[in-house]
Amino acid sequence: MKQYVSVTAKFDSDGNILPLKIHWDDGRSFEIDRITDIRYAASLKAGGAGIRYTCRIKQVEKHLFLEDNRWFVNNEKEH
Amino acid sequence: MRTILHSDCNGFFASVECLYNPQIRNKPVAVCGDKDKRHGIILAKNEIAKKYNVKTGEPIWQAVQKCPELVTAQAHYDRYIRFSKLCREIYSDYTDNIEPFGLDEAWLDVTGSVMLYKSGRNIAEEIRHRIKNELGITVSIGVSYNKIFAKLGSDYKKPDAVTEITKDNYKDIVWKLKASDLLYVGKATEKKLSKLGIYTIGDLANFPLPQLRNNFGKWADILHNFSNGLDFSPVMKSNEVSAVKSIGNSTTAIRDLENLEDAKIIFMVLCDSVCRRMREQGFRAKTVCISVRDTDLQSFTRQKKLDVSTNITKDVLSVCMELFKENYTFSKNIRSLGVSVTDFEADTLSHQTSIFQSEEEIIKSEKLDSTLDTIKNRFGNFAVKPAKLMFDKNLSGFNPKEEHTVHPVGYF
């Protein structure tokens, strides 16, 4: 399911945007340890398309999407 | 020899809606206009709905009869415009010769990049992959040495496919297609062709040209060239804005129009939009054209050439009403009306003054129009309007200027 999230991000001097921290609406927030890949991609599961950041968060790989100016993740049921 | 691609997004509107709603993706889906506003026709359908023979342009009730479990989705034009732009950004990685044909189709002249990618097919395959992965929709692409065959190629195999039409294989692929698949062969031409015993594009290509000319006049040469792949028209550069040849708006009214007053309300709104767009572009027009469609879906158009070109809303409206009164008697109620203007000249040109018309009057009207334009640009389309439009707010409550969408323009 598509879930919009709030994100703390950094704009570098070249204008690139790098997400640093994801904040869930239940109050929890997760530091992004590493970004391993950045590319344009569609998310068929969540339903949307934008810039896809492949993030490592505590050994777990997670896709974070920037669509226009909103961030979203695919929220699987077990989470 | 040129290498030209024609890329066509499969069921564009429906694909975008399916991307955004994963739960309807495996069902027959059709994108429809607003039923309550009587725009309830099928605008696009996905592959599953296609199997049920759901057709673009048919009313929703008819489609539901063919396919009872059809999911109808509302159209989101902002999304389609965004995806269309994203597609063009991908195309622009391969060439700057991109000529859009509507929102979902485009020609690309990739002659200059072929050396880099070894062949046109490789470029087409890469574009197909990228659009699928990056945008989540599918395209079919035709690769050929002219625009006409490239377009036939993109129609040949759908969805998510690449078809290459070369000088060696076009007789096997193109010539076996129905004549009506060719650009500019519509219903009327198809009928005329079949009377001559021409059913396929191959028949057309091999038909003696003089005899074709007897039947089709100057179009004969075009049809002959198209069917033989002798089309040399260039793919426009993406920064070349094609010259605007006409500006028009039309609408299906929210209810049937029963009298002259109703028609005038619709014409007022349409003329306001058309003239505002004309003034934004800096044009004056010399020809005004109206189109009328009655409740039996019979339609006609009438046009009038003016003595002096104009972009004044009031003047265009009066021409429309004149044309309408001369040509329609309300034998039937009216379903939709349209206004368009053509024969442009720049509004900076000086014009011949007339002894029959007061120049002061014209200047006054121009000032009034430009003041109204400023107000509408600042405070919105409905900020100021003629009192007449207040009589029936439902009827006049549409905004053709912002709601209008871009349709493919003619090939020439």
Topology:
The complex is a heterodimer of chains A (79) and B (412).
Chain A: E1 2-11, E2 17-23, E3 29-31, E4 34-43, E5 48-57, E6 60-67, E7 70-74
Antiparallel strand pairs in A: 1-2, 1-7, 2-3, 4-5, 5-6, 6-7
Chain B: E1 4-9, H1 12-20, E2 29-32, E3 42-45, H2 47-51, H3 60-66, E4 71-74, H4 77-91, E5 98-101, E6 105-109, H5 114-117, H6 120-135, E7 139-144, H7 147-156, E8 161-164, H8 170-173, H9 187-195, H10 201-206, H11 209-216, H12 219-227, E9 246-257, H13 260-281, E10 283-294, E11 299-310, H14 313-327, E12 334-346, H15 359-379, H16 393-396, H17 400-403
Parallel strand pairs in B: 2-4, 7-8
Antiparallel strand pairs in B: 1-6, 1-7, 2-3, 5-6, 9-12, 10-11, 10-12
Could you characterize what this model shows?
The complex is a heterodimer of chains A (about 80) and B (about 400). By secondary structure, chain A is mainly β. Chain A is built from no helices and seven strands. Chain A is about 0% helix and about 65% strand. The radius of gyration of chain A is 12 Å and the shape is globular. The model of chain B has no long low-confidence stretch (mean pLDDT about 85). In chain B, the strands form three sheets. A five-stranded mixed beta sheet of chain B has the order 5-6-1-7-8. Chain B has helices at about 10-20, 45-50, 60-65, 75-90, 115, 120-135, 145-155, 170-175, 185-195, 200-205, 210-215, 220-225, 260-280, 315-325, 360-380, 395, 400-405; strands at about 5-10, 30, 40-45, 70-75, 100, 105-110, 140-145, 160-165, 245-255, 285-295, 300-310, 335-345. Among the domains of chain B are: about 10-75, MutS, DNA mismatch repair protein, domain I (3-Layer(aba) Sandwich), CATH 3.40.1170; about 170-225, 5' to 3' exonuclease, C-terminal subdomain (DNA polymerase, domain 1, Orthogonal Bundle); about 245-405, DNA polymerase, Y-family, little finger domain (Dna Ligase, domain 1).
